[in-house]
Amino acid sequence: MTSSTLDPISLEILWTRMISMVDEAATTLVRTSFSHIVRECHDYAVVLLDAEGRLLAQSTQSIPSFICTLPATARHILAKFPRQTMKDGDVFITNDPWMGTGHLPDINIIVPIFHKGELVAFSGTVAHSPDIGGRIRSPGIRELYEEGLRIPPLRLMHAGERDQAVFEILEANVRISKQVLGDLFAQLSANKMLEKRLRELLATVDVDLASFGYEIQSRAEQAMRADIAALPDGVHSYKMEVDGFGDPVVVNCRVEISGDTITVDYTGSSEQLARAINVVPTYTFAYTCYALKCILSPSVPNNEGSFRPITVKAPEGSILNPRFPAPVGARAMTGHLLPPAVFGALSATIPDRVQAPPGSPLWSCHLTGTNHGEPFACLFFLNGGQGASATADGYPAISFPSNLGNTPIEVLETQAPVRVLRREIRRGTGGAGASRGGDGQVLELQILADAPVTVSFMANRLAMPAEGLDGGEPGAPGQVLLNGEVFDPREISLIQPGDCLTLATPGGGGFGAC
C-alpha cells in the first residue's frame, strides 16, 4: 500500500496506531526506569523516525524540546555509521550536547529497525540520567569538561551483543551507577518495544513506510504553511532579559512572516558566556519550533513536516549558538526563555493565542554527598507560575515550556537525607492583569545527612521577574534562602547537616491591563 492508495481514513488509523505504539514504548520506559526523574517527573521522550532520521511520531508525554533534537541525533549517528554498516540488533548511544538535547545528562539511544532485511525506521529515546559524573550541574561551571562524561556516537550493542567497555566506562564515572544503568536498560526496553510493535504492524499491514512517512509529513507541512499564510506578512520583535552573571542575559527575538514561512532571528542576544547557561543550536531550534507549533498549528500531531516552514538563526558565538567547548549544563535557564520571547514578538499580531512569560526557567536543585557512609545524588524539580493569557489566568506551580512534573515530597525524602518542612503555593505572586499570572510555590527542607552536602541550583528570576504582556503586571521574583538568609544559588556550595533551604519560585506575568 503506497501513499497514493491510502484513503484518509486508513491514513488516520495508521498514524494513530503509530502514536499508540510510541506511547506504549514510553510506558515501558516509565515503568521500568529506576530514577524518579523519568518515573515521576517524566524527563524523557520516545520517537519513531523514518529511515532518513526524520520524525514520524512522538510519545504523547514528552519533553517538547526532545521532539526536535532526536531526529538531529539520529542524523549525526547516520553520518558516523552509514546505514549499510548497520545490522539488526545494533544500538547506538551519545550524549554529546551538540548532537543531542544540549547537555550531558540526557542520554540518547537510537536503534535501527529492519523489515525483510531492509532498514526501514529508527526508534529513538532520550532520558535525563540521574547522574553523569563530573561536578554536579550548576550554572556557575565554566567549561564543558567539568560537566561530566561526554559519550561520542558509539555502538552500545553490536548485532545484539553488548559492548561491555561502554557500560563499564559509564558505570565507573557516575555516582549512583545502579540508577544510571537501570534507566539506560529501561531506555533499551522502550526502544525494543517500539521496534517489536512496528515489525508487527508491517507484518500484518501492507504499507510502504517510506511513502506513508512522506504523506503524513507532507500533510503536516501543508497545515503549518496554511496557518502561517493566514497571518499578515511583517517583522515583529521582542527582547527579554533575565538575571545573569553581572550583566543580564538578553534574548533578542525577531520574527519575520513571509508568505507561508517564518524566520526567527536571535541576532542581538547575549554573547556566549564562560558559564553553563549557553544553548546549543539544536535546542534553540527545538524550543523556537515548539512555541510556533503551539500557537499556529497545535491540533496536528508533530512530525518532521511541521517544522520545515521554520528557519531559526542565531549568530555563532552567541549564547544561543556557542562555540565548543562552551559549558551548557544549565542550558534551560536560557533556552526556556525562547517560547515567551516568540510569544512576545507575535503578541500584537495574534494576542488571543499567546501568553505572558512564565515564572520559569524551570527551577531544580541537586544534592550530593554521603549519609552513614553511603553516597547519594538527588536532582529534583519545582516549577514557577504559568503566564496568563488573554482568556485565562495562569496555573500555579506548573512547568512551561518544558512539561516536567514537580518532584513529589515522598520521592524527595526517599532519594536524599532531607525532611520537607513545608510545601505550599505562594499566594498572590502571579502578576496582576485582566488575567492573572500563576502563583509560584515554596519548598522548605532540612538537611538530615551526617556530613556536609554539596548543593547546586538552577534558579532564576531572582532579580528580574517575569514580565506581564499587553499591560499586565510582572510576577513576583523568586528567592533562595539558607537558614532564613538570602543565598546566592549561582555557584556550587557546601551546606551543613541541620541547615534549612527555602526555595520560593517566581510567579508568572499577568496579561492585559486591569
TrEMBL record:
<feature type="domain" description="Hydantoinase B/oxoprolinase">
    <location>
        <begin position="7"/>
        <end position="513"/>
    </location>
</feature>
<protein>
    <submittedName>
        <fullName>Hydantoinase B/oxoprolinase family protein</fullName>
    </submittedName>
</protein>
<dbReference type="GO" id="GO:0005829">
    <property type="term" value="C:cytosol"/>
</dbReference>
<dbReference type="InterPro" id="IPR003692">
    <property type="entry name" value="Hydantoinase_B"/>
</dbReference>
<dbReference type="GO" id="GO:0006749">
    <property type="term" value="P:glutathione metabolic process"/>
</dbReference>
<dbReference type="Pfam" id="PF02538">
    <property type="entry name" value="Hydantoinase_B"/>
</dbReference>
<dbReference type="GO" id="GO:0017168">
    <property type="term" value="F:5-oxoprolinase (ATP-hydrolyzing) activity"/>
</dbReference>
<dbReference type="InterPro" id="IPR045079">
    <property type="entry name" value="Oxoprolinase-like"/>
</dbReference>
